[in-house]
Amino acid sequence: MKIANNKVVNMHYAVMDKDENLIDSSYDHKPLAFIHGSGFLIPGLEGALEGKQVGDSFIVDIAAEDAYGERHDGLVQTVPKALFASIDDLDVGMQLRAQTDQGEQTVIVIGMDEEEITVDGNHPLAGMDLKFDVEIIEVRDASEDELAHGHVHGEGGCGH
Ligand code: ZN
């Protein structure tokens, strides 16, 4: 069975930057399961998987624009530290949920002084060209429940 829209795909992957420094990998834990064509994956990877089948393994280069998009300087904002007074151990590198001009989103603290903190709402991989190493473990039809819910059900279903 070939990968196409509404197939459930189980795959292992490793994602690297363009110099092949490892960023993340599923190989030492469970494969990633998703419904193909649901927008779960970045566009470049979804496109590369189309038509592949069980046992296929391949490496694909994906430009930033087909991965997590380009960086936007407007997503870096400096705000009064007092807004985060409720957080005890506020520090550079921490991820926060924050109200921004673009609505609530996850931001990373990238700078801090006595009065202000600087947060970055870009995805950590935005602006990066990526390389994926993929191995297809399973391809099957999605069940009606899975298509209705928009996600994959493992053993015992998802309980809703
Ligand atoms: Zn469900």
Q: What does the model show?
A:
The chain starts with 6 loop residues before the first strand and ends in an 11-residue tail after the last helix. Strands 1, 2, 3, 4 and 9 form a five-stranded antiparallel β-sheet that branches. A hairpin with a 4-residue loop joins strand 1 (7-17) and strand 2. It has helices at residues 43-49, 144-149, and strands spanning 7-17, 22-25, 32-35, 57-62, 76-80, 95-100, 103-112, 116-120, 130-141. It is built from two helices and nine strands. The radius of gyration is 19 Å and the shape is globular. The chain has two domains: 7-68 and 126-149, Chitinase A, domain 3, CATH 3.10.50.40; 73-120, Thrombin, subunit H (Beta Barrel). Residues 149, 151, 153, 158, 160 line the site of zinc ion.
